[in-house]
Each structure stands twice: as C-alpha cells, then as structure tokens.
C-alpha cells in the first residue's frame, strides 16, 4: 500500500560518519517521504547544520537532503535497497560551495543485520571520491525496546587526509508507535583535527569522540 511518512526529531548532535555537522550542538530535523506499492520511494530531509567555519563571512545553517530509491525483495528473509541522496546547503561550507550527491546499496537480513556501501564521487565539491562502509545490528529485547550497534569505515583520505573507523552502540525505547527515544555512545578514530579557525579554508568538520547522543523522534 502506497503511503506518506514523516518525522520530526530533536538530536543532541548531528553526527554523520563519525563527525559532527553541528559543532556538537543540538539540532532539529524533519523528514517527509512517499513509498509506492512497488517499493520505490522519494522524499527530503531538512536539518540545522553548523560547521567550524564561522570565521568566514558566509556559512551554512541549513541542509536539505532530497533522496530517492527502491527496496527490492530477494526472498522472505533478504532484501536490498538502492538509493541516491543529495546534500544541499543554504550557503558556503568552509568558504566553498558544498552541494553534492552520494549513491548507496544496502543488503538486509530480516530486521536485525544490514550492510551498506556509500559512494560520494565529489564529496562537498572537494574533488574527493569517498567510499564508506556500514554494518548495523539490531536486537529487540521487548516489543518497545531495541538494542543496536553500528560499525563503519570511511576511505576519506582524499577529503580528510586519512581513512578511519567510526562506531556506535545504544538503545531505542518506543514510548508509543510514533514516539521514540534513543540514547547511544559514539566514537571515531579520526585524528589531526586543527584548532577552530586555524585554517578557515580547509575542510575539517569536528570529529565525534567518546560522546553520548540523545534523540527524540515523532513520526507518522
């Protein structure tokens, strides 16, 4: 059955592949998408952002994230997902235009394990091709309580001058069918982060090290 879905959330930090897109500050986010009977879907997300580039006269405060993809069943236990996602900013990111797109393919077994490959051919328009790999595990302890963990690896040497691992572990509590509270611990092996403003034109988002994250999401 074709359906519209939406979500509004509050997050203590906007974490992406082991680094913060909000300088470690809380953000509000929203998402709206449409899923067809045949498995195709499309939508867009909206989030506050804040990079460590405020020494520059023009910097982004919003990220629009349009996306489209398709879910393809393989059998009763396995399915795959193919998607493309855009990242559009309302101004500059570290003094440069930064809108870009990535492509992803994921494989899921039932509801408890999934693997994903993401390729950004020109990440943040920095002439850097960045492949990343994610593995995620989920386990329901009860109908309303779920444990989950994720491990990722980003081949980001062209962007950050290093490749690195990132990971998280946490729990989600479904207060109602539509209201979810999530708490998790995150860490990353991304080093050589310069002091704020040291290189205003160099791309260096803030790594998320040894940190707890909290979020509340309301969906329909």
Strand content: over 45%
Question: In order across it, which strands form the biggest sheet?
Answer: 1-4-5-6-7-8-9-10-11-12-13-15
Class of secondary structure makeup: mainly beta
| Major sheet size, sense and barrel closure | 12 strands, antiparallel, barrel
Q: How far is it from the N-terminal to the C-terminal residue, by CA?
A: 15 Å
Strand element count: 15
The percent range for helix content is under 10%
Separate helix tally? 1
Overall mean confidence score, pLDDT: 93
| Low-pLDDT segments, ≥5 res | none
Radius of gyration: 18 Å
Shape: globular
Give helix and strand order, one letter per element, not per position.
EEEEEEEEEEEHEEEE
Map the helices and strands:
Blueprint (H helix, E strand, L loop, with lengths): L2 E9 L3 E2 L2 E2 L6 E9 L4 E9 L13 E12 L4 E12 L10 E10 L3 E8 L9 E13 L2 E10 L2 H4 L3 E11 L4 E10 L17 E2 L3 E9 L1
Antiparallel strand pairs: 1-4, 1-15, 2-3, 3-14, 4-5, 5-6, 6-7, 7-8, 8-9, 9-10, 10-11, 11-12, 12-13, 13-15
């Amino acid at each position: 059955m074709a359906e519209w879905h939406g979500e509004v959330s509050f997050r203590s930090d906007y974490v992406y592949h082991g680094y913060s897109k909000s300088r470690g500050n809380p953000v509000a986010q929203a998402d709206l998408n449409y899923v067809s009977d045949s498995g195709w879907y499309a939508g867009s997300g909206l989030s506050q952002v804040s990079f460590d580039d405020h020494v520059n006269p023009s910097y982004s405060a919003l990220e629009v994230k349009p996306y489209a993809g398709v879910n393809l069943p393989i059998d009763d236990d396995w399915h795959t997902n193919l998607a493309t996602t855009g990242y559009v900013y309302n101004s500059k990111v570290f003094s440069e235009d930064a809108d870009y797109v990535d492509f992803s393919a994921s494989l899921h077994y039932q509801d408890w394990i999934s693997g994903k490959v993401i390729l950004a051919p020109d990440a943040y328009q920095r002439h850097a091709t960045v492949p990343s790999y994610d593995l995620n595990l989920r386990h329901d302890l009860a109908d309303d309580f779920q444990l989950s963990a994720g491990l990722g690896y980003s081949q980001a040497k062209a962007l950050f001058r290093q490749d690195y691992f990132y990971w998280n572990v946490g729990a989600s509590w479904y207060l109602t069918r539509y209201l979810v509270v999530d708490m998790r611990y995150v860490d990353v092996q991304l080093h050589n982060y310069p002091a704020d403003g040291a290189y205003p034109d160099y791309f260096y988002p803030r790594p998320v090290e040894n940190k707890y994250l909290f979020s509340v999401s309301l969906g329909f």
